[in-house]
Every structure is written in C-alpha cells, then in structure tokens.
Design a protein that fits this description.
With 166 residues, this protein is of the alpha+beta class. Helices cover 20% and strands 33% of the residues. Strands 1-2-3-4-5-6 form a six-stranded antiparallel β-sheet. The radius of gyration is 25 Å and the shape is elongated.
C-alpha cells in the first residue's frame, strides 16, 4: 500500500520548514578573546605574575585584575604585611563589552592600561616605583604628571587577595 500523496507532501513541507529556517550557530567554544589579550611585548609570562584579585566597576564599565609575584601574593594575604621588599604588582584594566554567547554577560573588551608597582631596596627604606602602560599595545607612559601616582600606589598596594582554591 502506497502512502497517501497528500500526507507525503505535508510531511515534506513540514521538514523543509524546520530545516530551512535554521542557521549554523556561531560557536565560539574554545576561542580566545584576542581583544583582551596582553601584547607579547609586555612580557607578562616572563614576569611570573599570578592573579591576586579582580574587580568590576559597573558605573565606569571596566574590569580589572591585579596580578603579582610570590612576594606580592604574600603581601596581599597578610592582615599586617611584615615586609614589602620584592613586591611586584600589576593592575590590568579593560573596558567591558557584552558577551555575544551569554545573554546579559559582560567580558573584558579593549585593553585600557596596566599599572605596575615595584618595591625594591631594604625594609627600612624601601623604594617604590610606579609605571603606567597605556592602550592595546601597553605603551609605557614617560609622563605621569596628570596622575596622582601616590593615590594609585596606595590603591594597588591596598588590595587584598581574593580567596582562591589552591
């Protein structure tokens, strides 16, 4: 017995309707957010820095991550830091942008700047150095006259470590 021709026509139209309106999903799984990546010229990997803390400022639409060396991690974890010599902290800041993969999610977008605080010298008389790197290429700013560097140093050194799994 042959199937009813009307039934076959209806089922064919239904199948075409379901498949004709679909598109291949734009799957970004495993894709690196190159826009937010630090430039190779900054030599971030060679500095041996690890995440200490992160923050989001919704009003200014920015994301920041504080990185530091082992001395900085210890410094940020102690209630009253015993010694600050050897501390290297870098605060990296990005604009936020919408994440096209998750409704309502925000991800780092354009790289804004990196601020580095380095403490050298002896415990009795530490030397504190502040460096500012701007833009996507993290170009070192030689003139920081318009920036309250003392306030930025205080802010960066005042950050406490997030509790992270070991």
């Amino acid at each position: 017995m042959l199937p009813n021709i009307n039934y076959l026509a209806i089922m064919t139209c239904f199948a075409l309707t379901l498949t004709a309106c679909t598109t291949t999903p734009d799957n970004h799984a495993g894709e690196l957010n190159a826009k937010a990546s630090l430039p190779d010229s900054f030599n971030f990997k060679s500095k041996g820095l690890h995440v200490i803390a992160s923050s989001i400022n919704k009003r200014e639409n920015i994301t920041a991550v504080l990185y530091g060396n082992a001395a900085a991690q210890k410094f940020a974890r102690e209630a009253v830091p015993a010694d600050s010599v050897g501390v290297v902290m870098t605060l990296v800041t990005w604009n936020q942008e919408d994440d096209g993969r998750w409704f309502g999610a925000r991800i780092p977008g354009d790289l804004l700047c990196a601020e580095t605080v380095t403490i050298t010298g002896k415990s009795a008389a530490p030397q504190i150095k502040f460096e500012l790197f701007n833009g996507a290429l993290l170009t070192r700013e030689t003139n920081t006259d318009g920036i309250d560097t003392a306030q930025r140093i205080k802010y960066i050194l005042g950050q406490k470590a997030s509790i992270l799994p070991q």
